[in-house]
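Exercise 7b. C-alpha cells:
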C-alpha cells in the first residue's frame, strides 16, 4: 500500500481531495491532504510573507513528521510548483511524482511565469484591487466543470484567496526531483489552459515519464473522483 500525499492548487485547500482520498483509503492506502498556509481552513494565517518556500515547507513537514517513505506525491495545478520543490529536496522519500493538470516548472520559474502575460497582469491587478496587494482573489479560479449548480456553488464558496508572493517567487531546483523512480503527467483534457497540454506532450515523449489524459475540466478530483483515484493508484503501483 502507498502513502499518498495530495497537494492542492491555487485558491484551494485539502478539502478538494476529499472524494479521492476516501476512495484511496477504502483501498487500504494512507492518505494525507495538507492545506497550504494561508488557504482553506488555514486562511487566517495569510500574510504578505507567505510564499512558495512556505508551501514547500508545509508539505515537507508532513512527510518528515509523519515519517513517510515511498511516498506517492500528487500535485494539482499550482501544487506542481510545491511538489516539484518537495521532490527536489526529499527525492529519496518519493516513490512516485504525479502531476494532475499541474505546473511543471524549471529552475528559476515562478507560477506566474507559466501563464500568459494577460493572465499574469490580471492576477496582479486583482490582487491589488481586491486582495490588499498580498492575495489573488478566488474569482480567478478556472472553470470547474461541475455540472450540478448547487455542487458547483458549494465548491466555489470554499475557494479562497491565494498568497500573491507564492505565485511570484521563483522556484530553486537542483534537478534531484528527476531521480524519483516513477513520474507521470495527467492532463485534464477539456478546455485545458496554461501550459498543461504542452507538459503532457513533453512527458509522453520523455524517457522515464508516463502521460495520461482524463476527459475532465481542471478539477477531475471533483468531477471524476472515482476515475482519478483509480488512475492515481495505477500510476503509484
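Sequence design result:
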Amino acid at each position: 500500500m502507498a502513502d499518498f500525499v495530495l497537494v492542492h492548487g491555487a485558491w484551494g485547500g485539502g478539502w478538494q481531495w476529499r472524494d479521492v482520498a476516501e476512495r484511496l483509503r477504502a483501498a487500504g492506502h494512507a492518505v494525507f491532504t495538507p492545506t497550504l498556509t494561508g488557504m482553506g481552513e488555514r486562511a487566517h494565517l495569510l500574510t504578505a510573507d507567505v510564499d512558495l518556500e512556505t508551501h514547500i515547507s508545509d508539505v515537507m513537514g508532513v512527510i518528515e513528521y509523519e515519517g513517510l517513505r515511498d511516498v506517492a506525491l500528487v500535485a494539482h495545478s499550482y501544487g506542481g510548483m510545491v511538489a516539484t520543490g518537495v521532490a527536489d529536496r526529499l527525492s529519496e522519500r518519493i516513490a512516485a511524482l504525479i502531476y494532475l493538470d499541474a505546473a511543471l516548472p524549471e529552475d528559476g520559474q515562478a507560477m506566474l511565469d507559466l501563464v500568459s502575460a494577460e493572465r499574469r497582469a490580471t492576477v496582479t491587478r486583482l490582487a491589488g484591487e481586491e486582495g490588499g496587494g498580498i492575495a489573488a482573489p478566488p474569482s480567478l479560479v478556472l472553470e470547474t466543470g461541475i455540472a450540478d449548480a448547487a455542487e458547483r456553488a458549494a465548491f466555489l464558496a470554499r475557494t479562497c484567496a491565494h498568497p500573491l508572493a507564492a505565485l511570484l517567487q521563483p522556484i530553486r531546483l537542483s534537478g534531484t526531483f528527476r531521480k524519483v523512480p516513477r513520474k507521470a503527467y495527467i492532463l485534464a483534457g477539456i478546455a485545458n489552459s496554461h501550459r498543461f497540454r504542452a507538459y503532457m506532450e513533453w512527458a509522453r515523449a520523455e524517457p522515464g515519464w508516463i502521460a495520461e489524459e482524463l476527459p475532465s475540466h481542471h478539477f477531475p478530483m471533483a468531477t471524476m473522483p472515482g476515475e482519478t483515484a483509480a488512475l492515481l493508484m495505477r500510476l503509484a503501483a
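Instructor comment: The first strand starts at residue 3 and ends at 7. The chain has nine helices and eight strands.
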